[in-house]
Amino acid sequence: MPSRPGRRPRRKIALPLLLLLAAVLFLGFGSRTTSAPFGDSHDGKNGRVWSAGSRSLREEGPVASRLGTRNPVTGVYANHPPLIYLETAVTELVGFGTMAATRAPAWLGTLALIGLLGALLRDSGLRPNAVGMAVLLVTTTPMLLVYGTMLDTPVTSLPIAVGLLLMWERARRGKVVRPVYAGGLTALAVLAGWQALLLAGLVGSWALVRVVRRTGRRKVDRAFVIGACLGGALLLAWMLWAFGGTLRPLQDQFSFRSGQSAQKVGLGELLASQRHYGVGMFGAVGVLGVVGLVLALRDARTRGLAAAAIAVTVPYTFVLRTGAVNHSYWGYWFLLPIAIGLAVGSDRLLATWRSRGRWQPVLPCVVALLATVLVVGAWVRPPAAESNKIAGYKVAQGEEGAAPGPR
Questions:
Q1: Whole-Å CA distances, 180 to 70, 76, 164, 185
Q2: What global pTM score does this model have?
């Protein structure tokens, strides 16, 4: 039976419209923080560290500053991969040193994340409406609304990691992937953040097995392996350079974050804190995402993707438990598995309505209206303003401790 005129174009435009709405809602909610100074909050404390390194990189040069890790504000700080220093320095140069430019790696990265999640989930074979609804619902969570503008490595590395996952998914499905993109994104992921490094290692290991077994597209697989190794070598060399030939400061930081020294964190305390943060940062959307994640693990289209997302998020929380207890945004990367779960759950729901084709457009419209109401409600009545919980957006203009903008 031939489709009615205009039906296919409406299907094609549904996903871009839902993603556009997600981007608009995020920008609308984040508009009061993108140009605000850093205050006494997670947002402010993290932002001051990275902006100080960026300033040092621009003013002292890459050699004297060791790519931004040495500056008068923080002394030597090389506890995370260095790409964020370079990103911030570039956006500050392009944006003439405004606060919006300093925060640009975060909020521009989150905008990219919205589009890349849509591309990744759609490439997995899920319905466009299901993908759009999932990304839109994830956008309404306090985790993304509050911390999507925070200048820190979990925020800036996630879009790069999703881009790498997109290349990986296409390679797994035998689609055309340019080796330069595969290798370049893998190396960038290693230099972007610790969880992104874990993902790059996972993808590189998968590709290495294929190279050894001589299966798949050998050029692309070799590119994944070379990218992971190159990124790892550059990261190790940079850290030794920044720390003066030793990795002891990094080892001490790992001991602290994992609860091996100073603050001891038991399993019960960890689970209680994550339950508390999960309710505050993800709410009902998170619960639906977890339920959908079970379906995603059973669905051949998304099983590998869901397993990879779990593999780089859950261990990070359980191993670095002190960090997870003390930082409400430590689970920022859980946005990825929750989005996968929501997309698969929405796809199943739409599949049950297959025989009622005329009603299928209703659900995306309802979700779009609900998302708009939730974000507007969060704007009018923001999430709890406790600095160690959800108040990353709450900055203090003129408050004591607020740092000046970048010079």
A1: 32, 34, 12, 8
A2: 0.90
